[in-house]
């Protein structure tokens, strides 16, 4: 085998290995990594760690473009809610052509095994506000425990596909797992991140969502951003910290937002190295 053929074969094998991931992470020409957070408590610490920050405003959404260890990073302040997250994600992809998107921030606990400050790496994210009901006659009441989860249909490369949930990118997930040793404020686990325009405090409701959707935590953005990233074919991962847990009577602590940002920055540093 000639040297030229050997080099060509090695390049092909490398390309095949990368394509094994559904949305392989790649950063040609230093395409930026976008990190999303909905609120100041989920973004300000990261913005303070960037160099050469430039703020851009598009509609009602703000983006902070800078560098981390010399690599381009964009912090997207999505604002709270599913529609805000989707709009911000579209703008980020169309404007910055990112190599990857990480949606991160605070959340409420659903899994009894988890406590405040534990971090969930999203193996999947699911819109738990997407459901249908069977017919019920007038006067028979509302039975939310009987609501039935529905799929979402989106176009992927021009073809409609149905999704029950959205998988986190395998490479991003692996790097995030390998960064777990840097986190000292709680556990880092893999799990399902549930998203909806809801803030649930009824324990029976939380238990039903956890049992039905297998959720580890709930918040209001990740699945919506993941849906847009899926349509565009951009590698995506959700990372959420429990800032509160009704199950354990643990109230909201804004320090959780900083803890999550610190961890996510360590994940991004490992990615760019």
UniProtKB/TrEMBL annotation:
UniProt-listed InterPro entries: Nucleoside_phosphorylase_d (IPR000845), Nucleoside_phosphorylase_sf (IPR035994)
GO MF terms, alphabetically ordered: adenosylhomocysteine nucleosidase activity; methylthioadenosine nucleosidase activity
One CC-aspect GO term: cytosol
Keyword terms of this UniProt record: Signal
Signal sequence annotation: 1-26
Domain spans labelled Nucleoside phosphorylase: 32-246
Entry's Gene Ontology BP terms: L-methionine salvage from S-adenosylmethionine; nucleoside metabolic process
Superkingdom of the source species: Bacteria
Record-linked CDD domains: MTAN
Gene3D superfamilies: Nucleoside phosphorylase domain
Keyword Transferase: no
UniProt-recorded name of the protein: Adenosylhomocysteine nucleosidase
Species in which this protein is naturally found: Desulfoluna spongiiphila
């Amino acid at each position: 085998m000639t040297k030229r053929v050997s080099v060509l074969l090695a390049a092909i094998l490398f390309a095949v290995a990368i394509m094994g991931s559904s949305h392989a992470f790649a950063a040609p020409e230093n395409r930026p990594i976008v990190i999303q957070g909905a609120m100041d408590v989920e973004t300000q610490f990261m913005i303070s760690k960037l160099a050469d920050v430039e703020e851009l405003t598009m509609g009602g959404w703000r983006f902070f473009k800078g560098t981390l260890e010399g690599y381009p990073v964009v912090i997207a302040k999505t604002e709270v809610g599913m529609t805000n997250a989707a709009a911000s994600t579209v703008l980020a992809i169309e404007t910055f052509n990112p190599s990857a998107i990480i949606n991160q921030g605070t959340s409420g606990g659903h899994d009894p095994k988890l406590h405040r400050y534990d971090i969930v790496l999203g193996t999947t994210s699911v819109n738990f506000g997407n459901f249908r009901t069977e017919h019920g006659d007038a006067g028979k009441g509302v039975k939310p425990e009987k609501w039935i989860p529905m799929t979402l249909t989106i176009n992927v490369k021009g073809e409609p596909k149905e999704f029950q949930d959205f998988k986190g990118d395998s490479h991003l997930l692996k790097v995030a797992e390998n960064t777990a040793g840097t986190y000292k404020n709680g556990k880092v686990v893999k799990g399902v991140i549930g998203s909806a325009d809801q803030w649930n405090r009824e324990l029976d409701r939380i238990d039903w969502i956890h049992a039905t959707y297998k959720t580890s935590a709930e918040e209001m953005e990740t699945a919506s951003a993941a849906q847009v990233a899926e349509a565009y074919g951009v590698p995506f991962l959700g990372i959420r910290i429990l800032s509160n847990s009704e199950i354990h009577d643990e109230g909201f602590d804004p320090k959780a937002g900083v803890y999550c940002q610190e961890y996510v920055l360590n994940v991004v540093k490992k990615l760019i190295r």
